[in-house]
Amino acid sequence: MAGIQHINDERSAIALAELLNGNSRRRPVVVVTIPAGRTEPWIDVEEIARESGNLAEVFLMPTGPFTWEFSNRMADGTQVYGGAGRVYPVGHAWASDLAKSPLRFAFDAKDGERATQQLISDTLRMAASAGLLQALPARELRDVSGAVKMTVAGRALVDVGNLFPASIAEELTVEDVSIDRIVTAGQRIEGSYDRESNRIDVTKSLRPSSDALAAYAVGDVVLTKVAAVRSGRAEFLLYPKATSPAVTVTVLRRDVTDNPADDLRTLMTVGEVIPARVSATGPQWGLVLSDIDDDEPIVEPPSLLPGGPPWLTEESEELRAEEPEPLAPPTLRLTEPADLTDKTPTAPTSFRVTPSPSFLDRSHPRPGPPPGNALPAAAQTPGSTRSLLLKIDGLVAEVGQLKVEREDVRNQLLAASDERAQLRYLLDQAERRANRAENDLKAARARLRKAGSVKSGPAVDAPPQFADPERGFRYLVLTQWARRTLPSEQSERPLPDFVVGERFLESLARLEGIKEEKVADVVFEIVTGLAPQIPSREVHHLRTGTGGDDPVRVRDDGAIAWRASLQVNTPSARRIHYWALPNGQFELARVATHDEFDV
User: Which of 35, 46, 148, 256 is the most exposed place for a label (fewest CB within 10 A)?
Assistant: First the structure.
């Protein structure tokens, strides 16, 4: 375990500020402070030092006069005092971006437990980002295997035969992936065990992207995570960095929406999980988002470790998570003025000292020390009775004044405690409103993406009109081919010719509940041979009856009848019937509902 360095004078406080602002350090620095009026912090600094090991330097600093020497040498907003804690990552980006070094508050024991875990997580995450897991000399490790017992607080507990289970830290495994998306209870894992930190490193067992994504095929609808988004393009994470580089796919505006005026930043946010259709497989992956129906099945994302859970989950599942109970409104405490006429010494009032800016402000008035010449009456030089009575009256008045000042400080402390309770309640309510608003915003963005257009901005040109319905439908099929086939591959994968049957366009015009663009998209998959590879198309022979043993329908010219799904999991789901001709072409017969089998 790394030692805890104590900041206990002005010199050491200045040295800490110089260490953080200098260029010599190569590890994150954890600074935990002790609240005014206490001798121990609410935050468990020993647990932080134990979990950090040699990945960070840990400092403990009380809130006192020299705390200001440290604060005066730090950039605005990067200080730490009053019982809070903070981790400073390697480099100096945290001086201008406070989100890179979040402040963790602790006002009581419960806060201290939460802040301790947050600081440990911050430390490990920053150490991993700095590359310390590879740069620091490794201690002697041994290979272990065991079963995951449970996941809790960003850790997986693994039975490796010791008295206490070993742990897997999510921050040291895969960046920005929670532990319950890496392992699950009952899963068997293998890794390198560090006895000193009681941690298991499973990074060598992570699946490479080539293995994890091998099951994806063109036409599959898969889950992706938004890694970056700009006005006209976005980057989607298909698989995170493991034993191989991360797989990211660039998607242009035209692959998301039909409206060239749309700003993709209004349709998605970084970190959002969004379904997309695979238009090309590796190594040059392609994705489109503009032609996905709500009822289309989503291929399960791959696991990061063998036998593990999918590394992504649908956004809708997270939005349905049960919301914790809200805090009860705080009850204010009204203080009664003390009886200042009572000359009998009273026991000190019991109250909790909580940090407040007013108490850390050096300009705030504080009671001064007792006068140096205030001596007990027995120690006074004998004098006249009048002189002694005057001294006694002066001391009584001074005691009364000190009692007034003491009561004023007590009331300030109680008021500050009440104010903190109110602020915490308001913060809880604000966070709940923000979470609901964020969920509503994500749902609205999903609806906008599915609609394919944002109504704000310049009007979009009307689609082309054709006097010949067949030419109009062929144009739609050609459009889907151009949208779903990369320009670099279009010469190698041209759109095959096909036949439009006599009844096809009539049945399409008569059938409601599905867009022509959707039918054209499925026709593109049929004529290019993609449809049988897509599970949701449910391609199968069209038989003479409803039984599985009924003969397949074959036309006099040798054409074989087929049936594919346009929709799934919806009432009266739409189907398309077509013929596979002897010359290899396809003839579109008709569109129908689920219960219609006429061709």
Answer: 46
